[in-house]
Amino acid sequence: MEANEKKATIGIIGGTGFYSFFAGQEVEEINMETPYGKPSDTITIGTIGPHKVAFLPRHGLDHRFPPHLVNYRANVWALKSLGCERVISPCAAGSFQKHVEPGSFVVPDQFVDWTDGRKSTFFEGPKVIHASAANPYCPELRKLAIDAAHKNGIKVHETGTVVTINGPRFSTKAESQFFTRQGWEVASMTQFPEVHLVKELDMCPVTIALITDHDCGLEGDVEPVTHQQVCKIFNENIDNLKKMLVTLIESIPADRANCDCMNTSKTS
Fold it and tell me: Rounded to an integer, what is the distance from CA 109 to the centroid of its chain?
């Protein structure tokens, strides 16, 4: 699929608590239809450094779409059709490991899909591809995201496996303890299929996970997580997230000569 009109080269899909990005800036607002239905909300396009950036709130501006009902294919297709080549997916996330503390950030290098029934590919026939998910995140963008955290004095874990649970419920203690024993670090409800769909359309994905809570399966005095707690910790750290995003976007090179994400569908 080719972009119809290049309006932006970088897309941001904002998660829980992150519904706008271009404060004090004139933006272009775009409402779209896609072959997969409507995206979650209006897409706004602004400028960060040398780049045109498209911002889309994953759950809608009023958080009306729970994670299992987000139209991931429409969201990703819309960004591709606007010309995006890279997609940054910030998210609120839980932690399965004590050393990954609330308020810190993780730049995952792997995901585990623990969801059920989500539409997870653009290629349902007659064209079928089997896109590799061995290394699901763009290595170039991951390095730039980690560097952006360091430049802003933000505590960041440079690797991590994120488990995508279906939601909207949180994990049971038994589930959480299982994930912890596997050595996995992060809990999310939205990473899959979003990240893989980005790769299927030959764009570069990167995730910045803002840790809002320790999951309920950790040993010790860990209270069960609530949505209110997630939003509280996220709001306390959203300025750090925005600073990190601006630094990251400003550092992204115009060309993708050092990245192979653009060839995902061609080598599958």
Answer: 12
Tell me how far apart the terminal alpha carbons of the chain are, to the nearest angstrom: 15
Q: Please report the pLDDT score of residue 240 as a whole number.
A: 93
Closest listed residue to residue 163, CA positions, set 200, 194, 191: 191
From residue 84, alpha-carbon distances to 52, 155, 202, 212 in Å are 9, 28, 10, 29
Mean pLDDT of the chain: 91
Query: What are the distances in angstroms from CA 159 to CA 1, 64, 180, 197, 233?
Result: 31, 31, 16, 21, 21
pTM for the whole thing?
0.92
**Cβ neighbours, 10 Å, residue 213:** 24
Q: How far apart are CA 72 and CA 93, in angstroms?
A: 18
Which spans in the chain are helix H?
Answer: 72-81, 139-151, 173-181, 191-200, 227-251
For 82-99, letters b (16+ CB in 10 Å) and e give: bbbbbbbbbbbbbbbbee
Q: Which residues of 129-139 are buried (b: 16+ CB within 10 A; e: fewer)?
A: eebeeeebbbe
Main-chain dihedrals φ then ψ at residue 13, nearest 5 degrees:
-110, 105
Which residues are the active-site residues?
A: 213, 215
Residue 64: HSE in the Cβ half-sphere, 13 Å Cα cutoff:
6
Contact partners, residue 42, CB within 8 Å, separation at least 6: 29, 30, 31, 61
How distant is the alpha carbon of residue 65 from its chain centre? Answer: 16
Hey, what are 70's tokens? 């987000």
DSSP H helices, 13-84, are: 72-81
**Rounded Cα gap, residues 82 and 164, in angstroms:** 27
Report whether pLDDT(226) > 90.
no
